[in-house]
Structures are given as structure tokens and as C-alpha cells.
Amino acid sequence: MGGIEQVINQIARGCVKLGLKVDVLSLTANKTPATIEIDGYLAHRARLDFQIASTGFSISAFWRFYQLVKQADIIHYHFPWPFMDVVHFVTRVTKPTVVTYHSDIIRQVHLNKLYRPLKGKFLGSMSRIVATSPNYVATSTVLAKFKDSVKVIPIGLDKSTYPDVDPERLEFWREKVGAKFFLFVGLIRYYKGLHILLEAARGTDYPIVIVGAGPIETELKAQAAQLGLSNIHFLGFQSDEDKVALLTLSYAVVFPSHLRSEAFGVSLLEGAMYGKPMISSEIGTGTTYINIADETGLVVPPSDPLALRQAMTFMWEHPKQSAYMGQQAELRYKKYFTADRMVKSYVDLYRELQDSQ
To answer: What rounded mean pLDDT belongs to the chain?
Structure first.
């Protein structure tokens, strides 16, 4: 699962535990869409017909959504997904609505200009808009227009849903990548700043493990070869068990995302959940709500390889301070970012909206 899919799963399974009935509608490229049960909720998959600018469209989703809305009390959207804005208005939803605002639209500048009127109408029609961090509310020009409707509910994770790791698996990875390394986990996309991380690694011998796959993976491997980096381990996609094994073994988590497309950083939060000190960039989003500078880790300017290298050097050479920051990161996770806390906030919001009808 990617970050948003992980969040939806955590909300849905948490709501089921509290006695709510949950249906999730998404799209699938599978030729035979089906409804399946996942963690106590129903996942309905409409067939993906085509994509434009990473946005999926589906003719059958209109009817499926309309059927689900008839039996629902609350409709919960996840933004951005422009197709669903259209579905919302075509099916004439009149029930209470919540939208979790995950990110501004950053890259598709020209298409965003065309989309802006629909986006404004959609967000303006919502009963409540949920932002995932106060940092994002403070820096989003879009959310500023709807501040009276905005509520902050940070993303939360349930550690008990992550697999336990077999000692043999830990030993396998220890032999493969060593006992002390920096770890990045995530989809390999343009805004993740991995090209900056590779530049920062020049002149160092710190082992860096990169877990994940994505559209610029080949490009990054070519950059690493050009820079003559022998300390970078590209591991590609890994199972949840292997990801947890690497999180457990890692010395620190490095998260160099340099653009606001990185609106929160679920992988960064996983590092905090496993008690790891973190290095991230100040981009005015939830990454700096998770990682507090000089408390849970180090925060550097975006797109600054030298500052990133200096942060890595400090952590590598100061194990006691790094371990303390990791402890503080785990404490912050337990205080603000558990799935139970997130789910309770959403359920309270659902009930508030239902009672106001």
C-alpha cells in the first residue's frame, strides 16, 4: 500500500473495531472487479477505464458510488482525486461529507488552473475538511480559503498491524547491509529528494539503504553509478516483514523529500514508531510535525546536499544523542500519532455531523 491507502485502511479497520459499518470504494485495473472483505470492512473495486495526469477514471464507479451513498450516513472522500469531485456532483450527494485533504496539487500547474473552479466548488460543498497537520494548514493557500471548515486530525498508525520479524530475517538483512545504516522507505518519485540524498552521500562511506520502487528508480541508479557511490543499497520493493526488519535494524531514517507534494510522510512516521532518529527537510508540511528539529531528529533546508550530509555526519558521530532523539520520536508517536487517536477523532467528527442533521 502507498501512504494514502495505508491511512484509509487504518481508519476503516479502526472504525470497524468501534462498531461502525465501513465501505471503501476505489478503482482497480483488474478486468474482473470484485468486492472483498479486508480487516472487517468491505472494499468495493470499480474498474479503472483510463488515467489522465495520474487521475483514474471509471464509468462504472458512478453507479457503484450512487448505490453505496444510498445506504451510508457519512461520505468520506480523500483529496486530491478530481474524478471523485465529478462523481460527487453528478450523483447529487446530500448527506454529510468529510474530505481528508492530503495535499495541494503541485506538479500539474496548467491542469490545476483548469481544475481550480471544480476544486473550489467541491471543497466548498464539504461539511468538514480535515488536514493532516497544523503545519499544512498554515502553509496551504487552498486551505486558507476554507479555514472555517478545516479541522486537523493527524495521520495515525497501529503498530500491532505490522508483522513481527523472525530473528533469522533480521540476521539475513544484517549480513546483507550491515549493522549500522541510514534507511529510506517509500515510493521512488520526483518529490522524494533521493537525488539530493545521493549527492549528499558523496565523499562519505555511510551505508544508505533505499527501499521502494518507482518511476525514477533507473535514473537514480544511473546517478549513483556516475557519482561512484558504492555505499548505496537499492533494494527495490520489499514485503512488509522485510520492511519492518530493515526499520528495526536501521540506525536512523533519512527522508529528503524537498517539495510540498510530500504532505505528511507516512514512512517517516513509521520511523518514529520504531524509535528511530530522523532527518527530514523543512517544506512546510507534516514532515516537520512528525520530526521536531533537535528533539526527534534533525531538520535541514530542502534541496541542500551539504546540509543533509552534515546532518548525517552529526548523527553518525553522535550515537548517544541520536539514540535519545529516537526515544523522543517514539514518545511523540505514542502521544500524537496512534491509529486509535486518529480513528477516535474521525468517529467523533462523524457523530457530530450526523447529530447536526
So the answer is: 95
